[in-house]
Amino acid sequence: MDYKVIATILTDAEGASDPLDAAIALAARMDAHLDIHAVVVDHTSMAYDLSGMVNSAAAAQTRDALEEREKLENWLQERMRGEVIRWSLQAAMVQSVVLGTYLVEKLRFSDLVVLGRPYQDDPELAGLVETCLFIVDRPVLMIPKGGSAPKPGSRVVLGWNEGTEALAAARAALPFVRIAEETDICVIDPPARAPGQADPGSGMAQYLTRHGAKPNVAVMARTEGDVADTLLRHARGTDAGLIVSGAYGHSRLREAVFGGTTRSLLEKAQVPVLMAR
Q1: Considering all CA atoms of the chain, what is the largest pairwise distance in Å, rounded to the nearest integer?
Q2: How far apart are CA 209 and CA 205, in angstroms?
Q3: 116 burial class (0-12, 13-18, 19+ CB within 10 angstroms)?
Q4: How does pLDDT run across 91-130, given as a tens digit for each residue?
Q5: Residue 99's Cα: distance from chain center in Å?
Q6: Residue 233 CB coordination number (10 Å)
Q7: What is the pTM of this model?
């Protein structure tokens, strides 16, 4: 089982190299088709004066967005020249209020979306990740600045809490988990009296084993910091190449979608993170 349709969304040429290179590498490795979406988000809303004419400032910002789209599209055409993978490119300038609708249409048949890790330099990335996870409902692989796609066989750290989101992330990560040297199923502070906690993580270990993976169960106490800190310390200590986690949200409000563990992972991880829900 591999990903056969991989998508990536790029909003500017300056921060595009790492996620694009990772997406190309994965597409080549898995013999997948790569859909490249050059998306410039226009945050203006068309305002009209008393005569019915478009507000000049809003019109100028829209023109700037269109120019940025053309610049990004030209950069991508040049970057992809000579690549032997199967790929396609779509460029668009999208009003922010309809971004979710646009991405649902473009990404619904994708197996995986590759993006840069948010909360670094690009202010658009957090919104794109939120949209892909919570609206489009696609798994997202996030590449840190200067990072690359997980190497074949890289150790995987899987955050596991018996929840629906964690299970969705584990299933979405199977193409990585099946070929991993080992996969650590990290169970952090499991409740002592919860159903199935006599042997925490055993069900997931059995599931991954049946998919040909090599799982270990690591039951850990959260001694300091939050769950994300515990996962990140384990990933560093085991030289893991990928962290897999469910995406958790407290709210559908745009500025407050991500829950604490999710946001903390996205702010701090120095290896790729795969999330789903």
Answers
A1: 72
A2: 6
A3: buried
A4: 999 998 899 999 999 999 999 999 999 888 777 888 899 9
A5: 17
A6: 14
A7: 0.90
Q: What angle do CA 163, 164, 165 make, to 5 degrees?
A: 95
Q: What is the pLDDT of residues 178-197, one digit of tens each?
A: 999 999 999 998 876 555 55
In eight-state DSSP terms, residue 132 is I
Per-residue pLDDT of 24-65, as tens digits, reads: 999 999 999 999 999 998 877 655 555 555 566 667 777 888
**Which residue in the block uniquely carries the two structure tokens 């309809």?**
98
Amino acid at 33: H
| Strands lying side by side in the sheet with 273-276 | 86-95, 33-42, 5-10, 112-116, 140-143, 273-276, 242-246, 156-159, 183-188, 215-220
Distance CA 2, CA 24 (A): 14
Q: Which residue has the tokens 């909003």?
A: 11
Long-range CB pairs of 23-26, under 8 A, 24+ apart, other chains included: 23/114, 23/149, 24/83, 24/85, 24/87, 25/148, 25/149, 26/112, 26/114, 26/141, 26/149
Measured torsion, CA atoms of residues 126, 132, 136, 137, in degrees rounded to the nearest 10? -120
CB proximity list for 98: less than 8 A, separation 6 or greater:
none
Nearest to 163 by CA among 137, 191, 184: 191
